[in-house]
Design brief:
The complex is a heterodimer of chains A (366) and B (365). By secondary structure, chain A is an alpha/beta fold. Chain A has 11 helices and 15 strands. The radius of gyration of chain A is 21 Å and the shape is globular. Chain B has 2 domains: 255 residues, Rossmann fold (3-Layer(aba) Sandwich); 49 residues. Classes of the chains: A alpha/beta (366), B alpha/beta (365). Chains A and B meet through strand 10 and helix 11 of A and helix 1, helix 11 and helix 14 of B.
């Protein structure tokens, strides 16, 4: 479901080659690590003009403004919306995503909302409805779909290069090192879940993009009153199972492995361009590096640039969004489907006394 | 229920399991203290409030200890951190009115291969070849000096090789087996002074409870005398490796290579730590590719590089089982978990963590 694919006429008095005015809400980790640099690159190319930024923590806003000096710092989110921009990027903590997206849409701005686009599929529906009601675009930050590597995997699967799939296994995670501002990030109220809601959003989105909706969902995690630090997802897709293991406390090789009847594809998580392919008949294996048709190499920040450029293109030229907002909503639905089937992971190191308490803790969420 | 117990270094292997066990057993109110907010990720699976404080920041520590009767100091780190954290932690505990501080030192203060007859009364030396040992000696001495003012009771525990879920001796060894860098000097016939993590936590609880423990130091270990091969075998078997193939000889000298020196330097660690994870993953993957390309270009099949460290060589050749008689007599310490059960639980965790064990994937309860 694409919310808006019709080309809008540019506002009266705006030139086609004029930079799109854009505002940014949220100056936390994802902005400091990626959006600030991506916007700086796009500003340098004359594609966007960052009119304003906002964060309730003025110190964080000042740090980001140092990298985007043309931007004004808004004193409030309402102040940001009053800056007469065409696009709002919402990169605040997840619990603000839906409300801020809706406010921006109602203020007449197209929206790029960082993942997850909401903390529940109901909230995501509200965002989609606001976009439709205001005839505006809403894009969601599923940045991995911008990688040449993941797009190439999709193309290889679509043309049946490794034959019918037999199994898929994915491991992602390790000691959590995302520079969050407070421990409250790890609460259900703030983030809507733990590792599944966080990196699981990316992982499950890739799997459903590649394989479609799963027929069966099995899910277990280690939450005992709080949010999960580890989880195990088993998805049944037609004739094969995909096993997903996510962790915030112990690293294994961060790898997706797709085994088919005629070969296999391996992808190292967040590798933007390289995919390893092995074809049975040829008795060969190799790392294949994919670039976009322009031949330019794409790093992680470039993927953020492409994500923003995609929305700019949709706004300016009516080019359909490469990642429709419905994808952000559908992955939330799948995450909720997992939580609804939640079982407790087997934790064989717990002693008998602890196990007595586990069941009682496991049913509650902080 | 015991009063509130603050666990400093709660995201480390021992700290994490201490919080988990105390929380799930209901033995005490537990307050995890971590250095940065992101370090709370693993413990957020419990409905529990964490405090954020650097172990060198007296003000932040004092606030974090407020209302706690006991503090478990389980901060890991480099030699400087080990020593530098002692005074702020003690002063903050005193300022917050903490009754007792349990300091997790290490049996390494006696060296990796201590002489027969070593016990808590043996003299400590700060001119050992392993810097970690000297740091722990300095930390214990400083804590001894500070505690003379009587503001906070102090109990020092010296566990041996602490292993179990999330430990480097368990998960780290599994990683080494898989990447081909595992080794056991002389087949691992030397004595391993193992201390399963739950046994260490049992000792922590006794150190909190027993009034007479104040001002004392205790060696802590498992009941059984085991070898390094005994410790490593269950892991190897679970992953389908044969221990006999990883026996190595200790080199005659331990001059570190330029790569070892670089990897162990503070600047390198800081630089790597400052990079975002995707960048680190990318660099790591790129380096692996570069190495692979180099191998392909030369047409050579390179045997895995095994670098025997001095610390491991000394450990693997240890001939002394350290006693825990003093803990037994004064604290009533008896290891709560047998070595066999400890191995079963550790291998169970490997399965949970996603290692390719014979159980083939984590199950559901």
């Amino acid at each position: 479901m694409s919310i808006l694919v019709e080309t809008e006429q540019p506002p009266a008095g705006r030139r086609e080659d004029e930079a799109v005015r854009l505002v940014l809400a949220g100056c936390g980790a994802v902005t400091k690590l990626y959006y600030a640099e991506a916007l700086s690159r796009l500003q340098g190319r004359g594609q966007v003009a960052v009119a304003g930024i906002f964060d309730p923590d003025a110190k964080q806003a000042a740090l980001v403004r140092a990298r985007l000096p043309s931007a004004k710092v808004a004193a409030s989110f309402d102040g940001l919306l009053a800056m007469n921009a065409e696009i709002a990027i919402i990169a605040s903590p997840p619990r603000y995503h839906a409300d801020q997206s809706i406010q921006a849409l109602e203020a007449g701005m197209h929206v790029l909302c960082e993942k997850p686009m909401a903390t529940s599929s109901c909230e995501a529906d509200r965002t989609l409805a606001a976009a439709a009601a205001n005839n505006l675009h809403v894009a969601t930050g599923l940045v991995r779909r911008q990688f040449p590597a993941t797009r190439s995997i999709k193309a290889m699967l679509d043309c049946g290069m490794i034959g019918r799939l037999r199994s898929v296994s994915c491991f992602e995670g390790g000691a959590f090192q995302w520079p969050v501002a407070s421990t409250s990030y790890f609460s259900f109220a703030e983030s809507g879940g733990g590792v599944l809601r966080d990196i699981g959003t990316h992982c499950l989105d890739l799997l459903t993009w590649w394989f479609g909706e799963p027929d069966e969902i099995h899910y277990a995690d280690d939450a005992m009153g709080g949010v999960e630090a580890n989880c195990l997802v088993r998805l049944r897709f037609g004739g094969f199972d995909a096993t997903v293991r996510l962790s915030r406390d112990w690293a294994r090789p961060n790898l997706y492995r797709l085994e088919g009847e005629r070969g296999s594809i391996s992808w190292t998580v967040n590798e933007t361009e390289t995919v390893e392919v092995a074809l049975d008949g040829s008795r060969t294996t190799g790392s294949v590096s994919f670039t976009n048709a322009d031949g330019r190499s794409r790093d992680f920040v470039d993927a953020f640039c492409d994500q923003i450029s995609g929305l700019v293109d949709a706004v300016r030229n009516g080019v359909p969004l490469s990642v429709p907002a419905s994808a952000g909503r559908n992955v939330l639905d799948l995450v909720e489907g997992c939580y609804a089937r939640r079982k407790l992971m087997d934790m064989p190191w717990l002693g008998p006394e602890e196990l007595l308490h586990v069941a009682a803790c496991a049913g509650t969420r902080q | 229920m015991t009063g509130t117990v603050a666990v400093l270094g709660a995201n480390g292997f021992i700290g994490c399991r201490t919080v988990e066990l105390l929380q799930l057993s209901g033995w005490a109110n537990v307050r995890p203290i971590v250095r940065r907010p992101d370090a709370f990720a693993s413990l957020s699976r419990f409905a529990i409030d964490a405090m954020v404080a650097d172990a060198r920041d007296i003000q932040a520590l004092t606030a974090a200890f407020a209302g706690c009767k006991y503090v478990v100091h389980a901060v890991a780190g480099d030699a400087r951190t080990i020593v530098d954290a002692i005074e702020p932690v003690y002063r903050a505990a005193a300022a917050a009115g903490v009754l007792r501080l349990i300091y997790l030192s290490s049996a390494s203060v006696h060296g990796q291969s201590p002489p027969p007859g070593t016990d808590e009364t043996s003299a400590l030396h700060d001119d050992q070849t392993i810097e970690y040992n000297n740091a722990k000696v300095h930390a214990e001495r400083r804590l001894g000096q500070l505690s003379r003012d009587g503001a906070v009771e102090v109990v020092v525990l010296r566990p041996g090789i602490v292993f179990g879920p999330r430990s480097s001796w368990t998960g780290g060894f599994a990683d080494e087996l898989i990447d081909g860098s595992a080794y056991l000097v002389d087949g691992g016939r030397g004595i391993c002074n193992s201390a399963y993590v739950d046994n260490v936590i049992h000792a922590i609880k006794l150190a909190i409870e027993v009034p007479e423990a104040s001002g004392r130091t205790y060696l802590i270990g498992d009941r059984e005398e085991i070898s390094w091969a005994d410790l490593c075998r269950p892991i190897a078997e679970a992953l389908g490796f044969d221990l006999a193939t990883i026996s190595a000889s200790a080199p005659s000298s331990f001059a570190p290579s330029w790569k070892q020196r670089l990897k162990e330097s503070e600047g390198y660690r800081r630089l790597v730590g400052s990079l975002p994870r995707p960048v680190r993953c990318g660099l790591k993957a790129g380096y692996a590719e570069w190495r692979k390309a180099g191998r392909n270009a030369t047409g050579a099949t390179m045997a895995p590089t095994v670098m025997v460290s001095q610390e491991r060589a000394l450990l693997h050749q240890c001939q002394t089982k350290l006693p825990w008689r003093k803990a037994e007599h004064e604290l009533g310490y008896q290891p709560a978990v047998s070595f066999e059960e400890a191995c079963r639980r550790s291998v169970g965790w490997l399965t949970f963590a996603g290692y390719p064990t014979w159980r083939n994937g984590a199950g559901e309860r």
